[in-house]
Structure formats: C-alpha cells, structure tokens
C-alpha cells in the first residue's frame, strides 16, 4: 500500500522530515520509489528537463497526464502528486476542477498548483470535491518567472509578511502541504513553525518540514541551469556520455556485438540452408 496524504501530514506531527523528488518517466520513477522517497512529484519542470522548453509555460495537460500515467505505473510506496500546468486552472474554478480530475484519473493522488491568497478560493473548491491539493508559493515559475526571473523571495519584511499570509490562507483553504520555492531560510522557518501542514522547501533552507529536488539536478543530468540550492549527488551526464562514446567506438571497431550478444542457427539447419542457396 502506498503512502497517503494523511501519512505525509502525520510526518510533520511526528517531526519526521519528508523527502520529495520529481519524477516524469517509468524507469527513473521506479528507482526513486525503490529508494523509499516519500513523495513523487510529477512537476511541470518536466517541460524543461524532459521536453527541452526554456520554462514551464508551454506545458500542456496532455503532457502532464502522460507523465503522470508513466509515474503511476512505477510507484508502489510513494504518494504521487502531479502539477497543474500554466493556464489549466487560472482562468476559472471549473477549469481547475476538471483538470485536477484529469490528473487524478491519470493516477495522481493529489495535485499541486502555484499561487498564494489569490488561489485560495480555487483550492477550496478542488478540496471540497475531494481532491487533495499541495500549494506552491515563493518563487512561482509559471508566473514569477515572467516578471522577475529567478529571484529569492521573502528578503524584505513586507514580502515576508505576504508569504506568511499566503501560507496561512492556503492552510485555511485546505491544502495538505505547501511547496516553498527559493524563500530566505529565516522566513521559511517562520512559515514552517506557523502553519500546521508540512512545508516542502526547495532552495528555502533546512528548517522546512521536507525537501524537494528535481531528479535530474540531483543526478547531475541537466546542465542548462545549475541552481545554487540543488545538491548534485553524482555526475551522471558525464558517465552517460562516456558510455555512449564507448558504444560508438565498439560499433566502429566491430567489438560490439560480441558472441554473447547474438543468436545462432542450429548447425544442421545452417548446413541445409547453405546447400539450398549454394553457398
Ligand atoms: O515542477 C517542479 O519541479 C516543481 C518543484 C520545483 C517544486 O514544482
């Protein structure tokens, strides 16, 4: 049985830190799940790391449903949360409910959407129909990026007050958790201590209730952007490129495939074949 939303909420009460990792495809998500990660997040960062877009703006519902289906086939243990992409929930509450439902039908247990107080009514409506919601405040790639670029949030008293207010309103609206992106660590700590739902930090310091990373950043597979907050646990892209160069050399020198990689005919059958074709 995989983890439930309530299990994740309880982890904060039990003072257990929550590990979250993004997942978009079957193979990597299976490994993340096997490692015991608590939450798999099908983030719209898929647009950048899987599809090569400059940002998350072009990501569609169809793409998010496809990634969610793949990850849902991979997970056995983790809770599965999927992102609503840009413009799938902002225009109307009806859009938000319909598209949340699509992600749930694709295999998600809960959805995540970006926005503070302004999204409270939408979140309440989704929660009211029974779909758990993770909020996302601080740097909001779908919109903050359009106006400000990558900028640490909550460095002044006023912006900190706004973030604390946003977190409280999301909690009141019924979120089970909040992702907090690139917020000064002092404000992240205050928010984590202020609201009862788990705060999942990314670039927001160690005092959040849990952490989330993009799996390609953690494995060293995506070089286009290297955020200061993303710890690289390995340099997989170097190993992958080396392996592919070795493969190319092996093909060119006929070292691959070798006998253990091919299949043979029955010798008697081969003899008969040669006789028949006269070779
Ligand atoms: O899309 C994503 O990967 C995210 C995380 C960075 C929180 O929203």
Give an overview of the whole structure:
With 279 residues, this protein is an alpha/beta fold. The protein folds into two domains: 5-234, Phosphoenolpyruvate-binding domains (TIM Barrel, Alpha-Beta Barrel), CATH 3.20.20.60; 239-277, no CATH class. It has twelve helices and eight strands. The protein has helices spanning 5-13, 26-34, 46-49, 61-74, 93-105, 120-128, 144-147, 157-173, 185-194, 215-219, 236-252, 267-277, and strands spanning 18-22, 39-42, 79-83, 110-112, 133-138, 177-181, 199-202, 210-213. It has an eight-stranded parallel barrel with strand order 1-2-3-4-5-6-7-8, surrounded by seven helices. The mean pLDDT is 96. Bound molecules: 3-methyl-2-oxobutanoic acid. 3-methyl-2-oxobutanoic acid (KIV) is lined by residues 22, 43-45, 83, 136, 179, 181, 202, 212, 214.
Beta-strand fraction estimate: 5-15%
Order of helices and strands: HEHEHHEHEHEHHEHEEHHH
Determine the oligomeric state from the structure.
Answer: single chain
Number of domains: 2
Bound molecules: 3-methyl-2-oxobutanoic acid
* Largest beta-sheet characterization: 8 strands, parallel, barrel
For this structure, what is the CATH homologous superfamily of the largest domain? Phosphoenolpyruvate-binding domains
Q: Number of DSSP helices?
A: 12
| Level-1 CATH class name of the largest domain | Alpha Beta
Helix-strand makeup class: alpha/beta
Provide the CATH architecture of the largest domain. Answer: Alpha-Beta Barrel
Overall pLDDT score: 96
Assign an overall shape: elongated
By DSSP, the count of extended strands is 8
Task: Record the strand order, biggest sheet.
Answer: 1-2-3-4-5-6-7-8
CA-atom Rg in angstroms: 23 Å
Separation of termini? 61 Å
């Amino acid at each position: 049985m995989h983890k439930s939303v309530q299990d994740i909420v309880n982890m904060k009460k039990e003072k257990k830190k929550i590990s979250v990792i993004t997942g978009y495809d079957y193979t990597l998500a299976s490994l993340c799940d096997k490692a015991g990660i608590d939450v798999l997040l099908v983030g719209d960062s898929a647009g950048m790391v899987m599809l090569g877009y400059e940002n998350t703006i072009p990501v569609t519902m169809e793409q998010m449903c496809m990634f969610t289906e793949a990850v849902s086939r991979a997970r056995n243990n983790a809770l599965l949360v999927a992102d609503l992409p840009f413009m799938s929930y902002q225009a109307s509450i009806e859009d938000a409910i319909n598209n949340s439902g699509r992600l749930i039908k694709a295999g998600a247990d809960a959805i995540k959407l970006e926005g503070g107080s302004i999204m409270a009514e939408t979140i309440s409506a989704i929660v009211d129909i029974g779909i758990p919601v993770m909020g996302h405040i601080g740097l909001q790639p779908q919109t903050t990026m359009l106006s400000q670029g990558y900028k640490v949030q909550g460095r002044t008293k006023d912006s900190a007050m706004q973030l604390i207010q946003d977190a409280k309103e999301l909690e009141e609206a019924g979120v089970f958790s909040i992702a907090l992106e690139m917020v000064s660590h002092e404000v992240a700590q205050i928010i984590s201590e202020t609201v009862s739902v788990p705060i999942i930090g990314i670039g927001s310091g160690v005092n959040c209730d849990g952490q989330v990373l993009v799996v390609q950043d953690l494995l060293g597979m995506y070089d286009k952007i290297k955020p200061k907050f993303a710890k690289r646990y390995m340099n997989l892209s170097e190993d992958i490129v080396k392996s592919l160069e070795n493969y190319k050399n092996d093909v060119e020198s006929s070292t691959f495939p070798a006998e253990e990689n091919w299949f043979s005919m029955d010798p008697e059958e081969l003899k008969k074949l040669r006789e028949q074709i006269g070779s």
